[in-house]
Design goal:
single chain; alpha/beta; Spore Coat Polysaccharide Biosynthesis Protein SpsA, Chain A; nine-stranded mixed beta sheet; two-stranded antiparallel sheet
Length: about 280
């Protein structure tokens, strides 16, 4: 049974400077809810209620957000404003939270390895809060879709989507054998290739389910693109030695690590959830 989810949240958020000079980028609100809360809610709805955060310096606000604020709650107790805390109270009542710190920024693979102490020898989900994924109406969320596939194949799974050729260099890209509609057995993947070297137009986005052997693989993975320890490189080794599946998820994804994506997500959430 998979019930843990890891959130690598130690990044600097440089694309949003100066806003992120003192503000954790994961705490930037899409309308009135921080990005990281959307991700945690997605994990909880998928049954992943033991939430681990790999944090860094300047990320104290994330831990505070998932804790009680006695002063605030006392001030608004019994008032009409109390309803605004209902969503975060619900999250806090359904999940357990733990934290560890990544002292150096050495890539996503290194962040995942830092989280080993929170995961242990169990399969686990990974959510990158920069990627806001919203399900199609009436459908399960992306992580829930992936948990269902994991329960069938019991191997690591990456979420993928088709991206335009001129954006392929921003992503890890997979090539694989189509098993059925939207599901591929991975036989190659490259981190941020040029468009002429990309093996397909299927790009990995910020949702993963990983089996615990990934930790030993990362430990033996040499720095790759940008001299960072790339999770993509470790997953390629895992795919070659065993099995990694890629899943073309059903839903809408916004790259909230970019200004354009963040604005699009805010407009979408406001128009679809707050004006109905």
């Amino acid at each position: 049974m998979i019930n843990k989810c890891l959130f690598p949240v130690a990044g600097y958020g440089t694309r949003f400077l100066p806003a992120t000079k003192a503000l954790a980028k994961e705490m930037m609100p899409v309308v009135n809810k921080p990005l990281v809360q959307y991700g945690v809610e997605e994990a909880i709805e998928a049954g992943l209620t033991r939430i681990g955060f790999v944090t860094g310096r300047g990320k104290r606000a994330i831990a505070d957000h998932f804790d009680i604020s006695y002063e605030l709650e006392h001030q608004i107790s019994g008032s009409g404003k109390e309803k605004y805390l209902e969503s975060i109270r619900s999250v806090m009542s359904k999940a357990q939270f733990s934290f560890t710190r990544q002292n150096e920024m050495k890539g996503l693979g290194h962040a995942i390895l830092t989280g080993e102490t929170l995961i242990g020898n169990e399969p686990f989900g990974v959510v990158l809060a920069d990627d806001l994924c919203l399900p199609d109406p009436g459908q399960p969320n992306v992580m829930a879709q992936m948990v269902k596939i994991f329960n069938q194949f019991r191997c690591s799974i990456v979420a993928v989507m088709e991206v335009p050729e001129d954006e392929i260099h921003k992503y890890g890209v997979i090539k694989g054998e189509a098993m059925k509609d939207g599901l591929y057995r991975v036989d190659d993947m490259i981190e941020k290739p040029s468009k002429d070297k990309a093996p397909s137009n299927l790009a990995i986005i910020g949702r993963y389910i990983l089996t615990p052997d990934i930790f030993d693989i990362i430990r033996n993975t040499k720095p790759g693109k940008n001299e960072e320890i790339q999770l993509t490189d470790a997953l390629l080794t895992q795919a070659q030695d065993g099995c990694v599946m890629a899943y073309r998820f059903k839903g809408t994804r916004f790259d909230c690590g970019s200004v354009d994506g963040f604005v699009s997500a805010t407009n979408h959430v406001y128009e679809n959830l707050y004006t109905e």
